[in-house]
Design a protein that fits this description.
alpha/beta; Ubiquitin-like (UB roll); six-stranded mixed β-sheet
Length: 443
């Protein structure tokens, strides 16, 4: 019987229109806009000035603090300005604007597709090189990867868990990456195992990707300690806590982290970036993402340089359909609607979803009918209807006591609500306010 997590979960339509579409590289635009906050934690410090010439792979903003990481130029050219832009969340962020001139890479970076399975670095060199390369979680969280690998004193890493689930509807970039770069991923897993000093790694893949399960199972057979784990199809199985429960049958405690139960989780995109950083000396300046939607003419999986405007990517996929009602960065469950197509692709951009107008509008909100469906589907065992009320009324201490900070913002509650109540919207607002309250106590 296929493994899965125990609490809640839903089965939204998969709509994997771009499955099996080969990865296509998009030519960079005339100008890229590279935010210096592409990760959780402290923004990086800009170290270039207007007029500077830069090469692809060159550091343009340095890590500031432990939970931070480097930002690199994704193209070669000239810095035209350092200014602020509005990112996908709607906030202004500092960014470096680079006018593209040629495609000259920093010396020492291997840009070829040649496979390199010979890991020549020492275990001690792995974490510093990952920090230097600016690698973050590419499943959406953008947590700096060197921090995850730096196991806190008193904690013990026992298992590496690789997230190949890609349970978000529409998105297929990770699936295609597993199919096209399987050997590189296995090498990346070996590097992460050495960095963590663990002997066992598990790759969780949902059973709607049978070809990827078969492909990686064959590759992993020659490598001791790496196991491919087929999983039942259920959203949000890609959540760290749900994946750990499904594969290891261990439950991360409330307010805890995966390391509390001996696990460290990395997305397959992050794992490939680790391979490129260690084996190719290549920083994280491009990623594979999905461009999709019912009316998109060239639905597919595209390799895109960071800083590329969303509009440029959409144009490469056939342009914005006439019936477009909404454009989402990410998937339909956890992604965010964009108010501008000039928003740049960043390290955490997993996809661009274009929703037709007829599907883009919310239905009228009705009173709660106390059906408890939101409670039944919550993978964290919370009471979303209650958390909405507490957030709406700014009852922050009560919301904290009801474990609002445990919400993983998967959207299962809003999806299943027959009254179309904006549960997740208010819970997100409540989490922000409760987070501020918690931080104020520590000052």
């Amino acid at each position: 019987m296929l493994k899965t997590f125990a609490k809640g979960g839903i089965h939204p339509p998969e709509n994997k229109y771009s499955a099996n579409q080969p990865i296509v590289s998009i030519v960079p635009p005339d100008t890229v806009t590279i935010p210096v906050t592409q990760h959780i934690g402290a923004p990086s410090k800009v170290i270039v000035n207007k007029g500077d010439a830069v090469k692809a792979g060159q550091v343009i903003a340095q890590s500031e603090g432990f939970i931070s990481t480097n930002i690199h130029a994704s193209v070669s050219g000239k810095v035209v300005k350092v200014d602020s832009i509005v990112d996908s969340s709607g906030y202004k962020r500092p960014a470096v604007f680079i006018k593209v001139e040629g495609d000259e890479w920093l010396e020492g970076i291997d840009t070829s597709d040649a496979l390199n399975e010979n890991i020549s670095v020492s275990d001690e060199e792995i974490i510093p090189k990952i920090l230097e390369a600016g690698i973050v979680g590419m499943g959406g969280a953008t947590f700096p990867s060197h921090v995850k690998l730096s196991v806190p004193r008193g904690k013990n890493a026992e298992f590496l868990v690789i997230n190949g689930v890609e349970c978000e509807p529409y998105l297929t970039a990770d699936h295609q990456l597993m199919m096209e770069k399987g050997k590189e991923l296995i090498t990346g897993i070996q590097i992460l195992m050495r960095g963590l000093r663990v002997k066992n790694a598990y790759v969780g893949i949902e059973n709607n990707k049978k070809d990827a399960i078969k492909h990686l199972t064959v590759l992993a057979a020659n490598h001791q300690g790496i196991e491919i784990v087929p999983l039942q199809v259920k959203y949000p199985q890609g959540g760290e806590k749900q994946l750990i429960k499904a594969i290891l049958n261990r439950e991360v405690p409330s307010g805890g982290l995966p390391i509390d139960v001996g696990a460290v989780v990395f997305n397959v995109g992050t794992t490939f970036a680790v391979y490129e950083a260690i084996q190719k000396n290549k920083p994280l300046i491009e990623r594979v993402l999905t461009v999709t939607g019912k009316s998109v003419t060239k639905k597919g999986n595209y390799k895109v340089r960071t800083g590329t405007p969303m509009k440029h990517v959409i144009d490469a996929a056939g342009g914005l359909p006439e019936d477009t009602g909404k454009v989402i960065s990410g998937g339909p469950m956890m992604g965010k609607a964009l108010n501008s197509l000039e928003v740049p692709v960043i390290k955490g951009t997993s996809g661009i979803l274009i929703i037709p107008d007829e599907e883009a509008h919310r239905k009228p909100v009705q009173p709660c009918i106390r059906c408890t469906k939101c409670v039944q589907v919550c993978p964290m065992g919370l009471e979303p209807y209650l958390l909405q009320v507490l957030s709406e009324k700014s009852m922050l201490e009560r919301a904290e006591n009801e474990y609002i900070m445990d919400c993983i913002e998967c959207g299962s509650c809003s999806y299943t609500c027959p009254s179309n109540r904006p549960l997740l919207d208010y819970i997100r607002l409540g989490k922000q306010q409760v987070g501020k309250l918690i931080r104020s106590r520590k000052q």
